[in-house]
């Protein structure tokens, strides 16, 4: 059985971003494992233990060569090995999901017979609920669609059902906003986007980090991986995809063409005086300036 | 002719006001080539009425509210300049919630219905809100259509295409603006594809204007859109089933997204009990007519003072109220990522060195426990003065 965790190498949210070449950022800043992916890795490792260690946890990432560091972080947290799909460029979520799908498919000997997927060793795919740099919030849904398996995002509780040592289905709680939680029953394999509160990631010890250095990372170039990828699970596919007809101009995708620093500088005005006067002034501002009351 | 679609969010039969910003965005977008706009509303019950309108038993059970409420939504959409409204009904024979009286939002069923409607009405651009519902629905639709999707957009416009012909998509593309890298940069994203989808951040785009007051008694003044009912035959999903929806805390993220005023507390609140002070203040502002919600910084949530659904910031809600009052919040980059699009920021903080004090519109350098009680009193006085008038 194989449990996959899709992880992303993202700039530290506290790092200073410098824009270069119109739509790029200077990457000489701290990058780390996307914080939501920590919950995903932790949950995958927990699940492996529940399966009496009769499963392998594999971290997969699409990124530059530097993203290997993020795979090592995931392995220090308990993933057994890693797959790094290398690319020099930033990729949109359609390509990212295709790349992750292709990598997982190759690793699991997944086959399609008579339009039906044989999922082979694939038990489950975890991701974080979103990446903190791009916040696209969609890659997990696309992976699910490409594999024709169900997806739940923003998962805060995961209860697997294990029958005869195999994962058959799970009960999953997902945060739905307005203080609501949706509880689903989902069959496996499936894709689950880990949300905050799913677990408490434990930070790796030094021996964990040392051990992670020796674990295997397979490196696959993006182009090799998706060149011959066939997408046949999309029921409603109504447009040509980039790969079916690369000559055609019209293609499904999203490309960042311009990046600008957003540094809206407000000019703060001091509200002075005793508490009563300050309170009066705030009420006046709410009334006359903001016009909300 | 290209068609633009808008998915309209409503609650208890009332359109959420944030939709008007989405409508404004779609109207400006589609005006360039005079494209038609279709508004989609999803209703799980009127399908039953389309088939069997006079069913007194069901009306007794409480279904009647839905009929009346939908009329109101359609009328309101007409008044905002929407000509076509598609009522997407989920065939009750084809889904599991049909016994329930309320519209239960089941993202799997709703997304399937919306996909069918998008295809049937040949929608090439779909807009919706980037709310909790939008975040569940849009990615599911985009994934099944393999269509590009940009969430949390600040604006969307048509890209200039010099070779465009009416009968040919040509090299048509859209441009979406969105925050990237923790709100530190604004990106312009070029989006291509036969169907393109956008989730709009609530309250960042000025709402579209109302043609008439729909509360008007004069029925001639009301503008009705052309309404078509589309019955979506959603399949029973075997591999994913919504068993239950639990509501755990009433103070909620969605309130934050629709609030005109947000009053948030951070570390200096000292404990959860003290958040009652913020709630009192919020209630007093709400009594004066502004939708007001209480928010919190990550610290206050991590310390267990308030639930996660109240958190504003990069890993919480991203809000754009008219006024954001930050009480005892230092103003980290991550907090700003969730509230920097607020129209006005007022900071109350004891420390002059807190980051928020140099990036707000007004600041009070004082102990919040001295300011807030006075503020609540002042707000209550304001109410009295008004009611005497």
Question: What fold name stands as the CATH topology of the largest domain in chain B?
Answer: Rossmann fold
CATH architecture of chain A: 3-Layer(aba) Sandwich
Pair with the biggest interface: A-B, 91 and 107 residues
CATH architecture of the largest domain in chain B: 3-Layer(aba) Sandwich
Kindly state the percentage of residues in helix of chain A: 25-40%
- The assigned structural class of chain A equals alpha/beta
Order of helices and strands of chain B: EEEHEHHEHEHEEEEEEHEHEHEHEEH
Identify the overall geometry of chain A.
globular
Structural domain count of chain B: 2
**Oligomeric state, counting identical vs distinct chains:** heterodimer
In spatial order, strands of the major sheet of chain A run 13-12-11-14-10-1-6-7-15
CATH superfamily heading of chain A: HUPs
Please, could you describe this protein's structure?
The complex is a heterodimer of chains A (293) and B (389). By secondary structure, chain A is an alpha/beta fold. Chain A has helices spanning 35-50, 68-76, 93-108, 139-147, 206-214, 222-226, 275-289; strands at 2-6, 9-11, 19-20, 24-25, 31-33, 56-63, 81-86, 111-113, 116-118, 122-128, 151-163, 166-177, 180-187, 191-194, 217-221, 253-261, 269-270. Chain A has a nine-stranded mixed beta sheet with strand order 13-12-11-14-10-1-6-7-15, sandwiched between helices. In chain A, α2 (68-76) crosses α5 and α3 (93-108) crosses α4. Mean pLDDT of chain A is 91; it is low at 239-249. Chain B folds into two domains: 3-232, HUPs (Rossmann fold), CATH 3.40.50; 253-388, Rossmann fold (3-Layer(aba) Sandwich). Chain B has a nine-stranded mixed beta sheet with strand order 9-8-7-10-6-1-4-5-11, sandwiched between helices. In chain B, strands 14-13-15-16-17 form a five-stranded parallel beta sheet. In chain B, α4 crosses α5 (132-145). The longest helix of chain B is centred in the N-terminal third of the chain and has 24 residues, at 56-79. Chain B is globular. The interface between A and B is large, with 91 and 107 residues. β13 of chain A pairs antiparallel with β12 (240-247) of chain B.
């Amino acid at each position: 059985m194989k449990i996959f965790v899709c992880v992303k190498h993202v700039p530290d949210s506290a790092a200073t971003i410098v824009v270069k070449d119109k739509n790029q950022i200077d990457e000489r800043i701290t990058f780390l494992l996307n914080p939501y992916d920590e919950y995903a890795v932790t949950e995958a490792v927990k699940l492996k233990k529940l399966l009496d260690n009769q499963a392998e946890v594999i971290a997969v990432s699409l990124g530059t060569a530097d993203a290997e560091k993020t795979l090592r972080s995931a392995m220090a947290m308990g993933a057994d090995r890693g797959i790094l799909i290398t690319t020099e460029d930033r990729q949109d979520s359609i390509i990212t999901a295709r790349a992750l799908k292709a990598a997982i498919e190759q690793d699991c000997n997944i086959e399609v017979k008579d339009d039906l997927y044989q999922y082979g060793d694939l038990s489950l795919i975890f991701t974080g609920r979103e990446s903190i740099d791009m916040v696209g919030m969609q890659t997990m849904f696309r992976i699910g669609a490409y594999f024709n398996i169900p997806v739940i995002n923003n998962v805060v509780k995961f209860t697997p059902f294990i029958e005869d040592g195999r994962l058959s289905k799970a009960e999953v709680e997902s945060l739905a906003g307005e203080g609501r939680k949706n509880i689903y029953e989902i069959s496996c394999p499936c894709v689950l986007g880990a949300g905050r509160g799913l677990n408490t990631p434990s930070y790796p010890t030094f021996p964990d980090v040392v051990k992670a250095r020796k674990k295997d990372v397979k490196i696959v170039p993006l182009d090799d991986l998706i060149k011959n990828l066939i997408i046949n699970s999309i029921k409603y596919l109504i447009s040509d995809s980039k790969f079916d007809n690369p000559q055609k101009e019209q293609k499904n995708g999203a490309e960042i063409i311009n990046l600008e620093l957003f540094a809206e500088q407000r000019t703060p005005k001091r509200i002075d005086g005793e508490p009563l006067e300050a309170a009066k002034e705030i009420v006046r501002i709410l009334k006359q300036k903001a016009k909300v009351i | 002719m290209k068609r633009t679609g808008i998915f309209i969010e409503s609650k208890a039969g009332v359109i959420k006001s944030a939709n008007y910003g989405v409508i404004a965005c779609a109207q400006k977008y589609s005006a360039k080539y005079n494209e038609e706009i279709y508004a989609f509303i999803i209703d799980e019950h009127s399908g039953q009425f389309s088939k069997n309108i006079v069913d007194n038993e069901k009306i007794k059970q409480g279904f009647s509210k839905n009929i009346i409420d939908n009329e109101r939504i359609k009328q309101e959409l007409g008044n905002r300049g929407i000509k076509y409204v598609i009522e997407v009904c989920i065939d009750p024979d084809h889904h599991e919630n049909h016994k329930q009286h309320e519209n239960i939002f089941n993202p799997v069923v709703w997304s399937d219905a919306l996909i069918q409607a998008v295809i049937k009405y040949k929608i090439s651009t779909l807009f919706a809100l980037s709310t909790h519902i939008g975040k569940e629905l849009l990615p599911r639709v985009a994934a099944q259509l393999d269509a590009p999707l940009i969430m949390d957009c600040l604006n969307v416009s048509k890209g200039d295409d010099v070779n465009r012909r009416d009968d040919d998509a040509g090299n048509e593309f859209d441009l979406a603006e969105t925050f990237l890298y923790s709100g530190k940069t604004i990106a312009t994203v070029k989006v291509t594809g036969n169907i393109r989808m956008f989730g709009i951040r609530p309250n960042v785009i000025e709402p579209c204007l109302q043609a008439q007051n729909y509360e008007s008694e004069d029925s001639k003044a009301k503008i009705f859109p052309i309404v078509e009912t589309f019955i979506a035959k959603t399949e029973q999903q075997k591999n994913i089933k919504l068993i239950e929806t639990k509501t755990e805390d009433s103070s909620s993220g969605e309130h934050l997204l629709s609030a005109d005023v947000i009053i948030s507390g951070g570390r200096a609140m000292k404990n959860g009990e003290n958040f009652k002070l913020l709630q009192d203040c919020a209630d007093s502002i709400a009594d004066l007519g502004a939708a007001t919600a209480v928010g919190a910084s990550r610290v206050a949530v991590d310390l267990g003072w308030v639930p996660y659904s109240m958190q504003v910031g990069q890993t919480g809600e991203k809000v754009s109220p008219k006024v954001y009052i930050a009480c005892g919040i230092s103003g980290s980059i991550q907090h700003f990522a969730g509230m920097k699009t607020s129209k006005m920021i007022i900071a109350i903080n004891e420390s002059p060195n807190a980051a928020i004090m140099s990036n707000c519109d007004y600041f009070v350098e004082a102990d919040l426990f001295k300011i807030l009680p006075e503020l609540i009193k002042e707000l209550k006085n304001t109410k009295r003065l008004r009611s005497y008038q």
